[in-house]
Amino acid sequence: xxxxxxxxxxxxxxxxxxxxxxxxxxxxxxxxxxxxxxxxxxxxxxxxxxxxxxxxxxxxxxxxxxxxxxxxxxxxxxxxxxxxxxxxxxxxxxxxxxxxxxxxxxxxxxxxxxxxxxxxxxxxxxxxxxxxxxxxxxxxxx
Length: 142
Ligand SMILES: Nc1ncnc2c1ncn2[C@@H]1O[C@H](COP(=O)(O)OP(=O)(O)OP(=O)(O)O)[C@@H](O)[C@H]1O
Ligand SMILES: [Mg+2]
Hints:
Layout: E1 2-6, H1 9-20, E2 28-32, H2 39-49, E3 64-68, E4 72-77, H3 84-89, H4 92-97, E5 101-105, E6 118-127, E7 130-138
Parallel strand pairs: 2-5, 2-6, 4-5
Antiparallel strand pairs: 1-7, 3-4, 6-7
Helix pairs in contact: 1-2
Bound molecules: adenosine-5'-triphosphate and magnesium ion.
Adenosine-5'-triphosphate (ATP) binds next to α1, α2 and β7.
């Protein structure tokens, strides 16, 4: 487990860009943390590392945003999803199996269907501009 303190939005982006070096086609990243913890900022940093040109913002209403970088990035926000059945209904397993990078906000909602090989990124608010970021490689990562 790697733990960091980020003192600014820019520092979180930098940490995410560095972390992205560990990702490849088929990777899965689960993001956890309260509203405003910085999950979407972290996704922005990952997208920068993959040279995504599209605007990255929270797909809360669309559920899935697909970006076209040096790999496809599937950015999924499960905040409004009720249960695993509803999540399967948006075709989440196809994104997970696709040859891209799948990053999922509120990944705890995937419950029993979360990929066993993955990276978990847990973010928490320390104060207005400070966040704790803990990155865990689960089952060797992917
Ligand atoms: N150190 C920091 N790292 C990241 N974001 C920070 C930091 N300090 C302040 N912020 C601010 O916190 C907010 C994080 O918002 P963000 O949309 O990334 O959160 P989120 O976890 O995706 O929330 P949601 O669950 O609503 O999607 C932004 O407004 C950002 O400017
Ligand atoms: Mg978000």
